Amino acid sequence: MKRFYIPATLSVVIALIMSINVNAQSGKTEITRKNSWIKTGLNIGLPIAQLADQSNFTLGGEVKGQLMSTPNWGLGLASGYTHYFPKEGHENFGSIPAAVFARYYPARQGFFIGADLGYSFQTGSQLNGNGGMYARPQVGYHNRLWNIFGFYNGIFRKEADGSHIQYVGIGTTFNILFD
């Protein structure tokens, strides 16, 4: 089962990149000030599964570049940093994701659903820098300037590198518009 994560995630990433490339070549999506922007935000989370034994909570920041490829679909790149605040007897550590993301917006304002997929690099001595495949499905509310969402964050590592890193949380991002 664990061997499935890497090929599956890479397949999704390649498919997203190819779809962006196909749209760009066909002239359907031109990057303009009106259909692209930067999202910056903060999130907080509660560790679940084995991570709950090592960490009390998480606090992170994120930056995303988004292109609205159609009126309802946003695609982009995502990164940031999440710090895991340790329980007594454990060390500090963090994660730095490098991901692509897709979001579906049924309307100009209201509900949205999306996911980030990629790889997360780990920081901190107890993890020896070993990261893993990164998945972050989310659901939330959006308007022109703000996004508020709930999410599950999973970093799936090889068994030799230790347990998976999982938490649930809430976050908000502010859209920096160029128009």
Describe the model.
The chain is mainly beta. It has one domain (2-27, 36-177): Porin (Beta Barrel), CATH 2.40.160.20. It contains one helix and eight strands; from the N terminus they run H-E-E-E-E-E-E-E-E. The chain has an eight-stranded antiparallel beta barrel with strand order 1-2-3-4-5-6-7-8. A hairpin with a 5-residue loop joins strand 4 (93-104) and strand 5. The termini are far apart. The model is unreliable at 21-25 (pLDDT under 50).
Secondary-structure arrangement, i.e. CATH architecture: Beta Barrel
The helix/strand class is: mainly beta
Q: Please state the average pLDDT score.
A: 86
CATH level 1 name: Mainly Beta
Order of helices and strands: HEEEEEEEE
Low-confidence stretches: 21-25
Strand residues, percent: over 45%
Query: Strand order, biggest sheet?
Result: 1-2-3-4-5-6-7-8
Give a short account of the largest sheet.
8 strands, antiparallel, barrel
Write the layout of secondary structure elements.
Layout: H1 2-26, E1 36-48, E2 55-68, E3 73-86, E4 93-104, E5 110-123, E6 132-142, E7 146-156, E8 165-177
Antiparallel strand pairs: 1-2, 1-8, 2-3, 3-4, 4-5, 5-6, 6-7, 7-8
